[in-house]
Amino acid sequence: MGPGPSNPYPEVIEAFTRPVMGHLDGAFLDLLDETCDRLRAVFRTGNTLTFPVSGTGSAGMEAAFVNVVRTGDAVVVGVNGVFGERMCDVAARCGAEVVRVDADWGEPLDPQRILDAHPAPAVIAVVHAETSTGVRNDLAELGAAKGDALLLADCVTSLGGIDVRLDDWGVDIAYSGTQKCLGVPPGLAPVSVSPRAVERMRCRPQSWYFDMGMIADYVTGGGARAYHHTAPISMIYALHAGLGVVLDEGLEESHCRHQRCGDMLQDELEARGFSLAARAGARLPQITAVRVPESRLPPSMTEADVRRTLLDHYGIEIGGGLGPWAGQCWRIGSMGHTARRRNVTLVLAALDAVLG
Ligand code: PLP
Question: Could you identify the atom of ligand 1 that is nearest to the CA of residue 58?
Answer without folding.
Answer: 16
